[in-house]
């Protein structure tokens, strides 16, 4: 109902909303909505491309909404951060408040209930030092091994990628020593003479 209402209201602006979370978080639609419904002129750019600009834009919009609706800060069921982070419940509260104020004839269904589930994710850092050794990681936290590999891959590709190389598998692509030598050269800031080693070793001897 709210999506249809927004699209009808902003039809002349050729704005089409498909998702409340994805289409309202940056403030563009809310900006047009307030200007259309309340004849307000907000002193912000229509389009905010960076997160900093979006946060500034939403701050101005939230102040305008609170002023129009004559609401105190403690009465607000939304915030700049919750809208910016695409919190659907906050977005619904905000839109319902705007609709009831500017378009009271809109037939919003009564006694709507929203059940929310909050999921907290705890990130457990894994510290690998020379003293601890990888044996500790293998024996006590094998489930963290893939995460450690991913970090190493990102580190390696950040450096060898400058030469147009890409590492996807540590075990196979490091086994012949070529990537390792190139990585050392990149980290130490010098060019490895390709005559000093086999770039495409075909035997164990060449790898050694």
Automatic annotation (TrEMBL):
SUPFAM superfamilies: Calponin-homology domain, CH-domain. InterPro entries: CH_dom, CH_dom_sf, Parvin. GO terms for molecular function: actin binding. Its main location: cytoplasm. It is found in: Cytoplasm, Cytoskeleton. Residues 1-103, 146-208 form the Calponin-homology (CH) domain. Keywords: Actin-binding, Cell adhesion, Cytoplasm, Cytoskeleton, Repeat. Belongs to the parvin family. This is PARVG protein.
